[in-house]
């Protein structure tokens, strides 16, 4: 007993938090990140990695469904909290911590969860219209989000780890089905044609999805699919070989990713062939707390931190995030100036970083020009030399519908960098997400 | 005694995983079953005191199977992890050929008049192996291998000048190289 | 010819395993301290990281995914630690070694090739797009680092005139190989970072893939993967110490202690390097490995061979 309690105490000392930002709650997310850092906790890379799911803001229905799916993928012990204002960050993390440390509560949670990984939401379960749309979407998302993709959509965890109960059945259970979204590696879904349709329809997403699910249903009937996952379709790749087409949605629950953005990608191997972008809006009656002031030094540092995170440079990203928080406190780059200069020098000197970021087209400016490395340096520059009078230099944004063109033909790592660096028009981000505009 | 046990253990694992290659239903499992089979054969060579050969067999086979798994999966064209599929094709021909080969080899083992050992093994088996295999032809071998290797690489480069990622190959991080295809 | 070392009975293997894990924990601790400092906290607050993370993962449940290839996933997950242990079997600790294999250098090489298979299997198992891409990235990366690695460890073997690790250590009495074959040493250190999937070679487990091969592991599975990576890094450092940094040679201290101290120090340096550098994008790695590193290390080998021939005649 004593041992168990001690293990619990040690285990929650360094919780990992999956932070989900709803469009419009940028400042809250920054406060949360800062609190996580100060406590010595760690942001999670994927739901499987997370102990705590922290939602900054009030999501709309589709985003909420995506968050719920991510929640299902947390292995447990797990805790979930919502923050609506920067000042609420600390209390929310405390609440989550209490939940995590509560052994009995966690055991009850584990017992209440299904033992086998059920697939997300079955395509055939939701009949029509909007609902179907959102259900389906989410199941995709979940996949993407982080994590896991899909195939698993589900989480299922079995409980072995520590907890008792359970059954662990493995894996695949498939009954459920759906498949549509997912299937991990191999792709999901629809055959080629289906894919094509899916992608080309630029109408509203509801319809789109419904189509999609039909397709996959058909597929299901044609062949017995293990775990209900249909075959991948093939397509000609750039190098002339035929490769499987997979539909992997990226976002909206993905670290270092623009809030609410979903990029429905069709990938061959690790190259994105085509994509469709949309932003899942916050709840209709929610009042966003607000983002960082576009183009302000703090905002520039935040953008730099996001790029550096995706570039796999955790320490430089941490430095940028700390600067952002100092700037938010201080209202001016005065005291943080030497640290900013240091970061700038470090980034400029890094040969490895230049090698990685050069040549990834920047989603910034109109028309988009330059590459992500330029963009990163520009952010740092602007953070160091803000305009007189405190009026922020405007960020040269690109509309959301330019994104698919930019990512097409890029390798996944480049896509992540490109999107992390993308200066998307704020209007697009907050507008209710009716597909690409 | 211990050697005998180890030998039989390895032999059984080797044959069993060889059989598994045809019994499992996924390309990944089949490939790695084959890898296990090869690795145990390499370990049997270690029992003979042929350290270098045994370990090189392990090294090469694991490397080869890791790469081969990619090709196996790639050429199947459907999601092979999920889709149970038979690993056997052209059953009758295959069984006949395999049976004949086995019969010939087994007959060879039983019928050949194996010579008695004369003298003792060399002190450094690796060294003498090198001399035996290469000997006076060392220079030729080295030259040929480099040429062969260069041929393979240049053939690939000629076949696929832009590469999978559509870079021009000469990218040293300069910005022109990785630009998106328009 | 390999008389310099004492081969200890197999009963000592558990001790070797404990030492390896201790070194792995050391690496993780240094990493935690550096991370804490980068985040603006006192470095001391990061020291408890390996323990806290272990407790967290022991308490966490395992994640199951739909249609996972469970056996292959488990092999990939659990195999890394085993391979790291097999690597150190041929690495001498001062005068003692578990196995004075006459071809120890090749053995190490074979074990590091097994890592190819294991990481790929760990990516394949969960049936998830992110981890699968991670697994494939590792194979592509392996093609970039393996040849330079092979030639890098050929250099000390050529200089010592033997493939036995004991002989290579003995040949460094007086002058470490790292001193007169620096390129081979640096390339080998880079390869250690690459096969333990650390920055700048961490794309297979990259942040851009939500953790890549780690994306869908949790609980003990994740612990095994993380510990396996640290253990590989420790084993690689130990081997580098034996073949490049003079093994147990050194003044005052006993040989076994020198081995440990050097290994710990090299490991700490590698951890520092990995925190200093961002991840190189995977498609940029292969041209660099083959166009730049491979010729360099071949030149190094040529220099070593010439020195040996001229010096020997």
TrEMBL record, chain A:
Region spans: Disordered? 104-236
Q: Where is the composition biased (Low complexity)?
A: 108-122
Acidic residues compositional bias, start-end: 139-221
In Swiss-Prot or TrEMBL terms, this protein is called Uncharacterized protein
Automatic annotation (TrEMBL), chain B:
Q: How does it sit in the membrane?
A: Multi-pass membrane protein
GO molecular function of the protein, one example?
quinone binding
Keyword NAD assigned to the entry: answer is: yes
Where does the record place it? Cell membrane
GO cellular-component terms in the record? Answer: plasma membrane
Q: What does this protein do?
A: NDH-1 shuttles electrons from NADH, via FMN and iron-sulfur (Fe-S) centers, to quinones in the respiratory chain. Couples the redox reaction to proton translocation (for every two electrons transferred, four hydrogen ions are translocated across the cytoplasmic membrane), and thus conserves the redox energy in a proton gradient.
Fetch the InterPro entries from UniProt: NADH_UbQ/plastoQ_OxRdtase_su6, Nuo/plastoQ_OxRdtase_6_NuoJ
Primary place of residence?
Answer: membrane
Q: Which domain of life is it from?
A: Bacteria
Which key words tag this protein in UniProt? Cell membrane, Membrane, NAD, Quinone, Transmembrane, Transmembrane helix, Ubiquinone
Q: Which family does it belong to?
A: Belongs to the complex I subunit 6 family.
TM helices/strands, residue ranges? 6-24, 31-49, 55-74, 94-112, 138-160
- What name appears for this protein in its UniProt entry? NADH-quinone oxidoreductase subunit J
Catalytic activity field: a quinone + NADH + 5 H(+)(in) = a quinol + NAD(+) + 4 H(+)(out)
The EC number(s) this enzyme carries: 7.1.1.-
TrEMBL record, chain C:
Query: Sorted alphabetically, which keywords does the UniProt record give?
Result: Membrane, NAD, Transmembrane, Transmembrane helix
GO CC, one annotated term: plasma membrane
Q: Which Pfam families does this entry report, sorted A to Z?
A: NADHdh
Segments passing through the bilayer: 12-34, 71-93, 105-123, 143-165, 177-197, 230-249, 255-273, 285-310
Query: Where in the cell is the protein located?
Result: Cell membrane; Membrane
Topology class, membrane: Multi-pass membrane protein
Question: In Gene Ontology terms, what is one molecular function of this protein?
Answer: NADH dehydrogenase activity
Give the UniProt record's GO annotations in the biological process aspect: aerobic respiration
Name the family the entry cites. Answer: Belongs to the complex I subunit 1 family.
Recorded hits in PANTHER family, A to Z, give:
NADH DEHYDROGENASE SUBUNIT 1, NADH-UBIQUINONE OXIDOREDUCTASE CHAIN 1
Q: What is this protein called?
A: NADH dehydrogenase subunit H
């Amino acid at each position: 007993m004593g041992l168990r309690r001690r293990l619990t105490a040690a285990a929650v000392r360094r919780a990992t938090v999956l932070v989900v930002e709803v469009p419009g709650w940028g400042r809250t997310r920054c406060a949360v990140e800062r609190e996580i850092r100060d406590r010595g906790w760690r942001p999670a890379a994927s739901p499987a990695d997370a102990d705590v799911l922290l939602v900054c803001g009030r999501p709309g229905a589709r985003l909420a469904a995506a968050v719920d799916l991510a929640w299902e993928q947390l292995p447990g012990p797990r805790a979930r909290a919502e923050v609506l204002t920067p000042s609420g960050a600390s209390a929310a993390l405390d609440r989550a911590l209490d939940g995590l440390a509560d052994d009995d509560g966690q055991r009850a949670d584990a017992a209440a969860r299904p033992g086998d990984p059920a697939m997300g939401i079955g395509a055939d379960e939701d009949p029509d219209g909007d609902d179907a749309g959102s259900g389906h979407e989410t199941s995709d998302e979940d996949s993407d989000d982080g994590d896991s993709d899909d195939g698993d959509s589900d989480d299922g965890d079995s409980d072995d780890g520590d907890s008792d109960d359970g059954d662990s059945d493995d894996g695949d259970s498939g009954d459920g089905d759906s498949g549509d979204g997912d299937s991990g590696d191999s792709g999901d879904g629809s055959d080629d044609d289906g894919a094509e349709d899916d992608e080309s329809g630029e109408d509203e997403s509801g319809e789109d999805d419904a189509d999609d699910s039909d397709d996959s249903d058909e597929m299901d009937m044609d062949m017995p699919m293990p775990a209900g996952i249909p075959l991948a379709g093939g397509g000609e790749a750039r190098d002339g070989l035929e490769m499987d087409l997979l539909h992997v949605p990226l976002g909206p629950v993905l670290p270092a990713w623009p809030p609410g953005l979903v990029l429905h990608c069709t990938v061959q191997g690790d190259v994105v062939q085509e994509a469709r972008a949309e932003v899942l809006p916050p709840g209709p009656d929610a009042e966003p707390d607000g983002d960082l002031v576009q183009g302000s030094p703090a905002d520039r540092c935040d953008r730099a931190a996001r790029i550096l995170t995706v570039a796999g440079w955790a320490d430089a990203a941490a430095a940028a995030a700390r600067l952002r928080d100092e700037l938010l406190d201080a209202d001016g780059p005065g005291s943080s100036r030497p640290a900013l200069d240091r970061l700038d020098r470090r980034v400029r000197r890094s040969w490895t970083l230049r090698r990685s970021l050069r040549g990834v087209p920047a989603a910034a400016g109109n028309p988009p020009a330059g590459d992500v490395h330029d963009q990163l340096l520009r952010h740092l520059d602007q953070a160091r030399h803000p305009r007189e009078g405190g009026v922020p230099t405007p960020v040269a944004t690109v509309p959301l519908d330019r994104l698919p063109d930019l990512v097409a033909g890029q390798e996944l790592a480049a896509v992540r960098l490109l999107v992390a660096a993308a200066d998307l028009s704020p209007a697009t981000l907050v507008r209710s997400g009716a597909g690409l505009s | 005694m211990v050697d005998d046990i180890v030998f039989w253990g390895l032999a059984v694992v080797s044959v069993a995983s060889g059989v598994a290659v045809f019994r499992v239903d996924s390309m990944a499992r089949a490939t790695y079953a084959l890898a296990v089979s090869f690795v145990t054969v390499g370990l049997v060579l270690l029992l003979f005191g042929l350290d270098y050969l045994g370990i090189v067999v392990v090294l090469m086979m694991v490397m080869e199977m890791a790469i081969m798994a990619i090709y196996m999966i790639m050429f199947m064209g459907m999601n092979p992890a999920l889709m149970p599929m038979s690993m056997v094709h052209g059953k009758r021909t295959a069984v006949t050929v395999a049976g004949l080969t086995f019969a010939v080899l087994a007959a060879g083992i039983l019928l050949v008049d194996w010579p008695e050992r004369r003298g003792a093994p060399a002190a450094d088996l690796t060294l003498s192996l090198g001399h035996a295999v290469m000997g006076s032809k060392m220079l030729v071998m080295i030259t040929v291998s480099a040429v062969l290797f260069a041929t393979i690489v240049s053939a690939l480069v000629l076949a696929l000048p832009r590469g999978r990622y559509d870079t021009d190959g000469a990218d040293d991080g300069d910005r022109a190289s990785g630009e998106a295809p328009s | 010819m390999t008389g310099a070392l004492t081969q200890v009975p197999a009963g000592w293997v558990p001790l070797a395993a404990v030492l390896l894990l201790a070194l792995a924990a050391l690496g993780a601790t240094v990493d935690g301290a550096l991370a804490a400092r980068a985040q603006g906290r006192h470095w001391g607050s990061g020291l408890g990281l390996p323990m806290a993370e272990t407790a967290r993962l022991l308490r966490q449940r395992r994640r199951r995914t739909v249609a996972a290839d469970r056996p292959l996933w488990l092999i990939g997950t659990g195999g890394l630690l085993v391979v790291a242990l097999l690597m150190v079997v041929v690495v001498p600790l001062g005068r003692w070694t578990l196995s004075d294999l006459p071809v120890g250098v090749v053995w190490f090489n074979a074990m590091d090739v097994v890592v190819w298979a294991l990481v790929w299997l760990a990516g394949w198992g969960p049936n998830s797009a992110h981890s699968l891409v991670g697994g494939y990235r590792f194979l592509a990366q392996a093609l970039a680092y393996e040849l330079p690695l092979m030639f890098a460890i050929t250099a000390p073997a050529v200089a010592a005139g033997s493939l036995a690790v004991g002989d290579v250590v003995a040949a460094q009495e007086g002058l470490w190989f790292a001193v007169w074959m620096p390129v081979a040493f640096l390339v080998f250190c880079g390869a250690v970072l690459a096969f333990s999937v650390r920055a700048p070679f961490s794309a297979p487990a990259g942040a851009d893939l939500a953790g890549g091969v780690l994306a869908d592991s949790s609980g003990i599975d994740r612990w095994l993967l993380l510990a396996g990576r640290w253990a590989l890094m420790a084993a690689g450092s130990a081997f580098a110490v034996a073949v490049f940094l003079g093994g147990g040679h050194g003044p005052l201290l006993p040989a076994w202690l020198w081995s440990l101290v050097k290994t710990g120090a090299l490991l700490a340096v590698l951890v520092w390097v990995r925190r200093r550098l961002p991840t190189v994008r995977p498609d940029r790695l292969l041209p660099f490995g083959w166009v730049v590193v491979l010729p360099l290390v071949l030149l190094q080998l040529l220099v070593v061979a010439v020195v040996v021939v001229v010096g020997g005649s």
